[in-house]
Amino acid sequence: MIRTDEHYKDSIRDGREVHVNDERVKDVAAHPQFNPLLDEAPCPSIANFDAPKFVASAQHVGMPEKDPEVSIEKVDALVVGGGQAGLAMSEHLSKNDVPHLVLERDRIAERWRTGRWDSLVANGPAWHDRFPGMEFSDIDPDAFAPKEKVADYFVAYAEKIAAPIRCGVEVKDVQRNIGRPGFRVETSEGVIEADNVVAATGPFQCPVIPPVVPEDAGVIQMHSSDYRNPGQLPEGAVLVVGAGSSGAQIADELSRSGKRVYLSVGPHDRPPRSYRGRDFVWWLGVLGKWDAEALEPGTEHVTISVSGAYGGNTVDFRRLAAQGMTLVGLTKSFKDGVLSFAPDLADNLALGDANYLSVLDEADAYVARNCLDLPEEPEARNIDPDPDCVTDPILELNLVEAGITSIVWATGFAVDYSWLKVDAFDEDGKPKHQRGVSAEPGIYFLGLPWQSRRASSFIWGVWHDAKHLADHISTQRKYLEYRSPAERKADGS
Ligand SMILES: Cc1cc2nc3c(=O)[nH]c(=O)nc-3n(C[C@H](O)[C@H](O)[C@H](O)COP(=O)(O)OP(=O)(O)OC[C@H]3O[C@@H](n4cnc5c(N)ncnc54)[C@H](O)[C@@H]3O)c2cc1C
């Protein structure tokens, strides 16, 4: 299509931000810096103006060529987030020869380094919780890597794959270009144009605290993402709400530190840490459970409660109670200083037991079917008797009378894609996607819980999802590179 000057001017009046000598240009089309281009090229096609060059790594492509001071960086694929997901994506894009850039607002794997509590170790052993291409160098493969080592591992991995990553740069806004392909990406360090954008900003971004206890209730309240160690909490008892891996581990640590701990336990899975000489990650792997496909719409996600702390033990709430912790059911409401709990504690424990025993059953069946020589472990089926707090559950608790001075909410996270202003979300703001390929061509999600399977948000799972996305981006590029014989003839190529 031939475009006139007016078409051209209209097309660049699309709200884009362009800076000339550090000053924002209000009307790009009217700015004198752009007039020479218009003068000399009366009918510039949009493709001439913006056609992204396939560059070996992100680089500045002059725009317009006459004025080297006005330039917009262009890249084929922009990956937002330099955690494990961003690095996996970079590795697979490189393998597919897709020029790309990773932007990370903090440091590589920052959430592992500073976004979690001090004593956190990986939930899976080092032989398992890693990418296929590199082992942990200084950890026994059956040990659980401390969080700092996990972060170090990803820094080393970024070096190994020579990831084109830029740290300290935040992506603030992504919008589809109007009238031409690609996206305009506003970052804390200027504008970048990208043909594809991969949102790898993590499955656990915004702490969620249910609005149960008002701020002025006279207790310190914090989310598990702000918890660091027992010394942070005031004297007195603590209520930990949520018995997934975070809640169970934090409650255990607080209890071991000598604190009086109440733990609010909801529905959960709690696989055995190990059985018949194999860690649960091995069992979930061979039994195909990590590969379980995304939950059907309407199916409840049940949190999984596992721990690598203290060398790795099965999460056993009855045992925690026997050590002095008080278990309560789901935290429901708060009135006049009194917290109410659902009468579901025994049911929640029973569901957790059923999950635990089902893994043992499936493991035994797998051993029998494959005639494996793994030692029997009948004692693993012993379930301790219910403690008093289960047989005679607490349904109401006066915080002052119980001496509770703090509450740790281990109640999960939400995602925040407010920076991604594209048509890739449903009416609830959730990403619309198929295995991470979004409804908006060129936009991809990575690291979402259950993106393609149970393992998607975990270290070993995200790597496989990244491969799928990189393959998809590469295939799309091949379509877009196609030129018909007539076009080739016209190009002289
Ligand atoms: C307490 C806890 C323990 C876990 N333990 C394990 C475990 O043992 N094993 C396991 O496999 N998984 C574990 N996980 C799950 C998962 O592996 C981690 O959540 C992991 O950090 C997810 O990696 P990610 O790269 O998808 O996201 P993140 O690690 O959250 O990385 C996303 C990155 O994006 C950056 N970012 C966000 N927004 C922007 C922006 N606008 N511009 C630029 N950068 C941006 C952030 O700074 C961050 O560095 C755990 C999760 C939690 C919460």
Structural description of this entry:
- The chain is α/β, with parallel strands linked by helices and 493 residues long.
- It folds into 3 domains: 5-71, no CATH class; 73-205 and 415-481, FAD/NAD(P)-binding domain (3-Layer(bba) Sandwich); 208-413, FAD/NAD(P)-binding domain, CATH 3.50.50.
- Helix content is 28%, strand content 21%.
- The strands form 8 sheets. Strands 3, 4, 5, 6, 7, 8, 9, 24 and 27 form a 9-stranded mixed β-sheet that branches. Strands 11-22-12-13-18 form a 5-stranded parallel β-sheet. A 3-stranded antiparallel β-sheet has the order 19-20-21.
- The two termini are 20 Å apart.
- It binds flavin-adenine dinucleotide (FAD).
- Flavin-adenine dinucleotide binds next to helix 4, strand 5, helix 5 and helix 13.
Output the CATH homologous superfamily of the largest domain: FAD/NAD(P)-binding domain
Question: Which percent range fits the helix content?
Answer: 25-40%
Euclidean distance between termini CA atoms: 20 Å
Mean pLDDT equals 87
Largest sheet: 9 strands, mixed
Structural category: alpha/beta
Please state roughly what percent of the residues sit in beta strands, choosing from under 5%, 5-15%, 15-25%, 25-35%, 35-45% or over 45%: 15-25%
Number of strands: 27
Just name the CATH architecture of the largest domain.
3-Layer(bba) Sandwich
> What is the CATH C-level name of the largest domain?
Alpha Beta
Query: Residue ranges: pLDDT <50 for 5 or more in a row?
Result: 1-68
Give a summary of the structure in a few sentences.
By secondary structure, the protein is an alpha/beta fold. 28% of the residues lie in helices and 21% in strands.
